[in-house]
Amino acid sequence: MTTSPVPTMNGDSVDTDRARTWVQAIAAAVDQHKDHLTQLDSAIGDADHGTNMHRGFSAATTAVAAMEPDTVGAALITAGTTLISTVGGASGPLYGGAFRAIGKALDTPTAGTQQLAAALAAGLASIQKLGAAAPGDKTMIDAYAPALAAFQQQAGAGADLAAAATAAADAAEVGMRSTTPMQARKGRASYLGARSIGHQDPGATSTALVFRALAETLGAR
Amino acid sequence: MKKLINSPDEVLADSLVGVAAAHPSLTVNSSDRYIARAGGPTPGKVGLVSGGGSGHEPLHGGFVGYGMLDAACPGEVFTSPVPDQILAATRAVDGGAGVLHIVKNYTGDVLNFQMAAELAADDGVRVEGVVVNDDVAVENSTWTAGRRGTGATVFVEKIAGAAAELGADLGTTAALGQAVNDRSRSFGVALTPCTVPASGKPGFELGEDEVELGVGIHGEPGRARGRLASARELVGVALDAIHADMPLSGEVLVMVNGLGGTPLIELYVVYAAVAEWLAGHRVWITRNLVGNYVTSLEMAGCTITVCRLTPQLTHLWDAPVVTPALRWGR
């Protein structure tokens, strides 16, 4: 990259390039963890989460690479639309809707920590509206909700983007692990009843990858 | 993994080429990924669109044709179709009388059809939906995603399709589809798991002497694991569960459906046990289907679906149908 970061009040911001990099970083992480996601899904679902996420984020990477976004959110909206059109299953509308909501809340050329916190909150609201799941149901929300809370707390304390995103990624991974002893109440895993206990939720696992990719994107200088 | 495929990633695309080649009565739109009647929409008739993950053939593409569906949207194997496909199919079959979506109750199917229905409504197409949830193995409560849609989907598609062909309006067609669902219950038993081509490994493991009771149609495990028993005993478990949920009486339509890896001779053994059980409970089978209609790739096992008939439902069941997988009366 030849341009230096645009200075803002707290010294750092997300720009259009970083938004695109985030999508690419998620695609790379999903590619790396594809078999693991599918393996988790075969224990309590239908063994397609890795394949579907891989198909979706590969297509999203291609789509955002082909565009010249003028706002931070533009690439994320395109990524979301692409996910809805390519992933299928419940993950398509849930992730696609979330990225579209995050993108719509970032309609400026750059965004700071507070604005990103608000955008991530809009993403969670989209997931909850569509999926009607609550924390503790053993879904992606169990990783997303604590990640958002950590990000908001850091943002409120005046932390920079990298620190807030790292705290979010750490919290998402704790949340992801917390799904193991839960009994699923939503999605296909809920059909297993008590037999879903003891398995980590694949959706929470891919959500943790999304937040780790954000931390890596915002941590890179 | 031992399958007759060219490449795990091309199974769906290759199979759609085969469907198009084998059935001149159907048209396959390979870019928008839907199967429709070759003649285009019937003016003034309610259009019926269903869809879901692939791997359940002949459901849904095999039920496209006169007297049943107007279009089917196949997703990737065991993955729901995406809204774009469903929207394209909905637009393509709208003959001006609106379109009925028949959706199996799985979170992904429901979300994607819901999104497509909203987009179609924006385009001015009237859309109603019937969500099929006949599987008694899942407790219907706030603690689950709700009951799954399985065998009753065939009944809903046939009977709603017949009504639409006879000129029923959208509301009436939807209400009939809903009534069929409400009067139907299913229970499945699996003897082996199945392997999604893209994953290459079986969805679960079963010992030589084990069966999965209350199994779904996506290779997901069921509600309990049991010992392999006689067909008569396993039918007893299934029909006891159905009868406890919806007391059976009068005339019924029964489907003994193979999950893909069970020979027809075993399905007839099961059917004999079903007929015996029902007769013992003074329930009379007046219509039946025995065969592979809602499969789960190569899974061995079967689902049993019972629908409490009314004279109207029997009449619509008997109405002519001309599809690759169901064909009578014309």
Automatic annotation (TrEMBL), chain B:
SUPFAM superfamilies referenced in this protein's UniProt entry, alphabetically: DAK1/DegV-like (SSF82549)
Domain DhaK: 7-328
Classification via InterPro entries: DhaK_1, DhaK_dom, Dihydroxyacetone_Kinase
Keywords from the UniProt entry: Kinase, Transferase
Entry EC number(s): 2.7.1.121
Gene Ontology biological process terms, A to Z: glycerol catabolic process
Coiled-coil ranges per UniProt: none
Domain of life, per lineage: Bacteria
EC class: transferase
Gene3D superfamilies listed in its UniProt record: Dihydroxyacetone kinase, domain 1, Dihydroxyacetone kinase, domain 2
Any one of the GO CC terms: cytosol
UniProt GO molecular function: glycerone kinase activity; phosphoenolpyruvate-glycerone phosphotransferase activity
Record protein name field: Dihydroxyacetone kinase subunit DhaK
Species lineage: Bacteria, Bacillati, Actinomycetota, Actinomycetes, Kitasatosporales
